[in-house]
Design a protein that fits this description.
The protein has 374 residues and is α/β, with parallel strands linked by helices. The chain has two domains: 2-9 and 265-372, Alpha-Beta Complex (Aspartate Aminotransferase, domain 1), CATH 3.90.1150; 15-261, Aspartate Aminotransferase, domain 2 (3-Layer(aba) Sandwich). Helix content is 39%, strand content 14%. It has helices spanning 15-27, 38-58, 72-83, 97-108, 124-129, 154-164, 248-283, 310-321, 333-339, 357-372, and strands spanning 2-3, 66-69, 88-92, 113-117, 136-142, 168-171, 190-194, 206-210, 289-291, 300-305, 323-324, 347-350. Helix 1 (15-27) runs antiparallel to helix 7 (248-283), helix 2 packs parallel to helix 7 and helix 7 (248-283) crosses helix 10. The longest helix is centred in the last third of the chain and has 36 residues, at 248-283.
Length: 374
């Protein structure tokens, strides 16, 4: 199969990642930090090394500010529900439901006022900042749209927010691994990332990168391997925000994936921008195609053809041409309303640097053939 669904999960795992996961499963079935034997100690060493590799990748201040999570959704929920308590929160129409639903939850409880910003001018950072007021307690935005691949102006927003002492939470699900992110120079207070997309890890792992001294309330409570007789969660990071057994096999893979990403991120981003340009240029020559993306480092191209439901096109690519793409709404309802694709959805091609020009040409051939039948 030609796998063009890498924005959902990376379909190409390097051997170092799969070997690390397999080694832990076969030879290190021990709970890190929970026992006094050498297997547990070894597991704890792997966790520490993984924190350090993620810390270096995003330039966090210290390893204790890397919180391992189940996925990016878990990290975003910890960031939003752990930090935002009141006031006005500003976000954008580009957001995934992993951002929107926690915010709607807080809004419906009457705890926050929510402002959702659409692009109104050529300067989206100015559009966002125009909604920031004296009672704004946080701005939350994705680094890149999971529908179109557009990179949002989080750096410009972060610079101004820092001068106002307002925290910026960034959803790095589609950006991390495609573009270099430096939480300090980019003025990101909290960055949520998944391991299993462009960071080359596996499912079941993610991280919250903390670059703020503002207190975070835990959203899960339980055993941490420390301070057993405390009635409350320990106050020390990372234990405060990590309850229960960590996913050691996935974290071992995350370590290798982060190392690999650090070496290749900028090069891979350039490759993906070239490949998305190739797809976009090819689709422009097919009658009935409407394209919603520009060439981008995230490897995403979204489009529709005539008035055909996007899931029908995705199904035909799968069943007739053995090509995996995604149709539908991509868990991002507001950007579909903004693009006027809230009826058809959008066909999303999402590439990995390992995808070849030959695969792209086969995809374009398939779309030309499908177009003839519509």
């Amino acid at each position: 199969m030609i796998y063009f669904d890498n924005a959902a999960t990376n379909g190409f795992k390097i051997c170092a990642v799969t070997d690390a996961c397999t080694t832990v499963l076969k030879h290190l079935s021990a709970n890190p930090g929970r026992s006094a034997h050498r297997l547990s100690y070894k597991g704890a060493e792997i966790v520490y090394s993984a924190r350090e590799s993620v810390r270096k990748l995003f330039n966090a201040k210290s390893v204790d500010r890397i919180i391992f999570t189940q996925n990016c959704t878990h990290a975003l929920n910890q960031a939003i529900l752990g930090l935002v308590k009141s006031g006005k929160v500003v976000t954008t129409v580009f957001e995934h439901n992993s951002v929107l639903r926690p915010l709607y939850f807080l809004k419906n409880k009457g705890e926050i006022d929510l402002e959702i910003v659409s692009p109104k001018t050529d300067d989206f950072s100015a559009d966002i900042l125009s909604k920031v007021t004296d009672n704004t307690t946080a701005v939350i935005m994705t680094g890149a749209s999971n529908v179109t691949g557009e990179v949002l102006p989080y750096k410009q927003v972060g610079k101004i927010l820092k001068s106002k002492n307002i925290p910026l939470i960034v959803d790095g699900a589609q950006l991390a691994g495609h573009k270099k992110i430096d939480v300090i120079s980019d003025n990101i207070s909290l960055l949520a990332v998944p391991a299993h997309k462009a960071l080359n890890g596996v499912m079941g792992s993610g991280a919250l990168v903390i670059n703020t001294d503002l207190p975070l309330t835990p959203i899960t409570f339980g055993g941490t391997g420390t301070e057993t007789f405390l009635e409350n969660q320990p106050e020390v990071l990372p234990e405060k925000l990590e309850s229960g057994t960590l996913n050691l096999p996935a974290i071992a893979g995350f370590y290798e994936g982060a190392l690999y990403t650090q070496k290749n991120c900028e090069r891979f981003g350039s490759i993906l921008k070239e490949k998305t340009a190739l797809i976009i240029d090819g689709l422009k020559n097919i009658d009935g195609i409407k394209i919603y993306s520009k060439p981008n480092e995230c490897g995403i191209v979204a489009f529709n053809i005539f008035a055909t439901d996007s899931q029908i096109i995705a199904g035909r690519l799968d069943s007739e041409y053995d090509i995996a793409v995604r149709g539908g709404f991509h868990c991002a309802p507001l950007i579909h309303k903004h693009l006027k694709t809230d009826t058809l959805g959008a066909v999303r091609v999402s590439l990995s640097p390992q995808n070849t020009t030959s695969e792209i040409n086969l995809f374009l051939f398939a779309m030309r053939q499908i177009a003839k039948t519509l």
